[in-house]
């Protein structure tokens, strides 16, 4: 997007920033991203529940303001098949009662064992929680191209190809980023399973394994993550972790809703199917 095009959007952006002030929304940046008409929104960190609230408030604010300017804000993770998708990246740190960062680097500048255990716990549950990270059929189109959308369960330091990234920040502000969820994911559910898995990892001292050093364009090692929406529904439904973390009633209800949604969507014949197969087979 050119500078002139961004400048044309400034009245809309100004209105969003002004609305954020009135809503106590700590909106830090709203900038142009990789795809056409795509923007990245950064919300300042707060406690996990309030951070989830902020995501919902921000979406409502942006959608309302956009309509007043004669446009529509779209929060589909993959509105255009050949363009970059949109994610919801969650940055996590852990503080004690005094506000000290428990994920801060060790005295010898090594990564915190507590943070590594949290990463290990999350790594072990990514497959069974994928239905919450990618809850709709369109969610899975985002993983068709691995560019900026990690369909993996690996971790690494300052590596944007991985699922769980430790940014190269100063040691005292150390945290990690969960990069799989799409912009369509429910932030409360993502927060619940992410926190639950991290705490399990800390309690059980789970080793996260060797960090990934692959770069963009290099082949990833195979993993056991679900490859499509139905596979994710099956793994979610069979998960004891999800049942324990979310409660058996919610776990059962959500599984059945998604099974019914899949069956409904499976009956929809797309225009692309007619184009490819309608009169050629």
TrEMBL record:
Entry keywords, A to Z: Ligase, Magnesium
At the top level of its lineage, which domain of life is listed?
A: Bacteria
MF (Gene Ontology):
glutamine synthetase activity
SUPFAM superfamilies referenced in this protein's UniProt entry, alphabetically: Glutamine synthetase/guanido kinase (SSF55931)
Pfam families linked: Gln-synt_C (PF00120)
Q: Where is the signal peptide?
A: none
**SMART domains noted in UniProt:** Gln-synt_C
- The GS catalytic domain sits at 1-281
Homology family = Belongs to the glutamine synthetase family.
Name this protein carries in UniProt: Glutamine synthetase
């Amino acid at each position: 997007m050119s500078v002139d095009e961004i400048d044309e959007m400034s009245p809309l952006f100004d209105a969003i920033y002004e609305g954020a002030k009135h809503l106590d929304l700590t909106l830090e940046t709203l900038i142009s991203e990789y795809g056409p008409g795509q923007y990245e929104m950064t919300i300042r960190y707060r406690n996990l529940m309030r951070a989830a609230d902020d995501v919902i408030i921000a979406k409502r604010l942006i959608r309302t303001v956009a309509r007043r300017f004669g446009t529509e804000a779209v929060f589909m993770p993959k509105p255009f098949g050949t363009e970059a998708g949109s994610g919801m990246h969650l940055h996590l740190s852990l503080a004690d009662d005094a506000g000290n960062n428990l994920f801060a680097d060790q005295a010898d500048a090594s990564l915190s064992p507590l943070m590594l255990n949290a990463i290990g716990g999350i790594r072990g549950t990514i497959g069974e929680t994928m239905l919450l990270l990618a809850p709709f059929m369109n969610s899975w189109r985002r993983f068709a191209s691995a560019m900026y959308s990690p369909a993996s369960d690996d971790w690494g330091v300052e590596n944007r190809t991985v699922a769980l990234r430790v940014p190269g920040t100063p040691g005292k502000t150390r945290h990690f980023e969960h990069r799989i969820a799409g912009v369509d994911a429910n932030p409360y559910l993502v927060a619940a399973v992410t926190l639950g898995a991290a705490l399990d990892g800390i309690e059980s001292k789970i080793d996260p394994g060797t960090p990934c050093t692959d770069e963009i364009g290099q082949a990833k090692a195979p993993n056991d993550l679900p490859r499509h929406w139905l596979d994710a529904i099956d793994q979610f439904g069979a998960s004891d972790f999800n049942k324990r973390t979310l409660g058996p009633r919610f776990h059962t209800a959500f599984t059945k809703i998604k099974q019914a949604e899949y069956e409904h969507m499976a009956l929809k014949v797309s225009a692309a199917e007619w184009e490819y197969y309608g009169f050629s087979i």
